[in-house]
Amino acid sequence: MSLSRGVAEADALVDSFGRHARKLRMSVTDRCNFRCNFCMPQHPTWMESQELLSFDEMTRIARILARLGVTNIRLSGGEPLMRREVEKLVGMLVRVPGIRAVSMTTNGAILKEKASALKENGLHCVTLSLHSLKAERYHEITGTRGVFSKVMEGLDEARRVGFERVKVNCVVTRGCNEDEIGDFARLAHDAEVSVRFIEYMPFDGSKVWDPEKVVSGEEILGKVGELYPLVPLEREHGATARHYKFSDDSDGEVGVITSMTRPFCSDCDRVRLKADGKVVPCLFSVEEFDIKPLLRGGAGDSELAAFLRKSFLLKSEGVEKMLEQHVELKHVRPMYTIGG
Fold it and tell me: What's the CATH architecture for 4-337?
């Protein structure tokens, strides 16, 4: 596939398998006001404030990556809305030449208060992490009390202010919430939002990962199909989800992110940046490359670009190859440190 915006091959961010980076997943903080049981260890260790990249530093990296072919940025955490004045960062990033869209994944607890400011600063899409539609179960999963109604109000507000897209992400875990697949399908259909079901992955913050908890994308689609006939949509290059529309006049969608049963590593086009400046080329790899010493040591843009190229070149082939080789999957890193 040709590079976007006419970026020359020699200037692109390319790994050793010929995959080009076009999307940046940028964590802005590891802090979170939730304690989700598939994400957070019992006693998390937080980054010190001085370890976090500043908005100017994040924007500088985004500007360099845009020159290397990156066009889309998704902000995450931890919980990104816990980063003070994060809407200002949104405004800075949308003005970077070559960046086409800036989106955000949030738990939604304070989205109602922030939605308008995010929209005004140019946020294109908001994705709400929502793993149960039952208040009591929601609080058990997230380790919160009395938050569920605020999250649902945040979803309503996101729809009201008019983001280009509003999505809902649901991690489906066997023995926890697989009985709610139909309820989430109804939400997608009736509220006309995009609900994406995510297979349980080894990022729960513990040392033991249980593959028996995985509910496959095919099983999920089967349960949705019992309620609504689905029409498959063409998968975009590098997309994490396979999307389906409803066969009636609803504008809602459902999608499945099959990281474990049907990985999509062969055309993965993502690179990740942790809040402390660690570059993570592959979500399933333990390898991280710290750009912060260069960033704060006076390095020029060309030196930073060279570091990013070298780091991305070392991107692993991915979980798909690990599964083919029957490599035992173990805990990689807590999800709260990288945001997915």
Answer: Alpha-Beta Barrel (3.20)
- Residue 191 phi, psi dihedral angles, 5° rounding: -85, -10
Order the strands of the 101-106 sheet from edge to edge. 230-232, 242-246, 253-257, 194-199, 165-172, 125-129, 101-106, 72-76, 23-27, 270-273, 278-280, 289-290
Burial 175-191 (b: 16+ CB within 10 A, else e): ebbbebbeebbbbbbeb
* Helical packing angle, 148-161 and 135-142, nearest 10°: 100
pLDDT of the residue at 329: 61
Identify the band that residue 208 occupies on the pLDDT scale cut at 50, 70 and 90. low
Per residue in 22-36, pLDDT (tens digit) is: 999 999 999 988 887
- Look at residue 280 and give its three-state secondary structure: strand
Query: What is the C-alpha to C-alpha distance for residues 138 and 213, in angstroms, rounded to an integer?
Result: 18
Q: How far is CA 268 from CA 100, 138, 236, 241, 317, in A?
A: 19, 31, 11, 12, 9
Q: Which residues contact 124 (CB under 8 A, 6 or more apart)?
A: 101, 102, 103, 163, 164, 165
SS3 271: strand
Domain ranges of the chain: 4-337
**Residue (of 231, 226, 143, 131) closest to 184 by Cα position:** 131
* Separation in Å, CA 109 to CA 85, 105, 278: 16, 12, 27
Structure tokens at 79: 């919980």
CA dist 27 and 39 (Å) reads 15
What is the number of other CB atoms lying within 10 angstroms of the CB of residue 327? Answer: 10
Name which of 97, 94, 90, 66 is nearest 76 in CA terms: 90
* Cis before 78? omega within 30: yes
Nearest to 175 by CA among 127, 138, 214: 214
Alpha helices in 192-300 (DSSP H): 217-225, 292-295
* Global confidence as pTM: 0.91
Q: Are the C-beta atoms of 168 and 196 separated by less than 8 Å?
A: yes
Q: How far is CA 118 from CA 35, 85, 250, in A?
A: 24, 10, 27
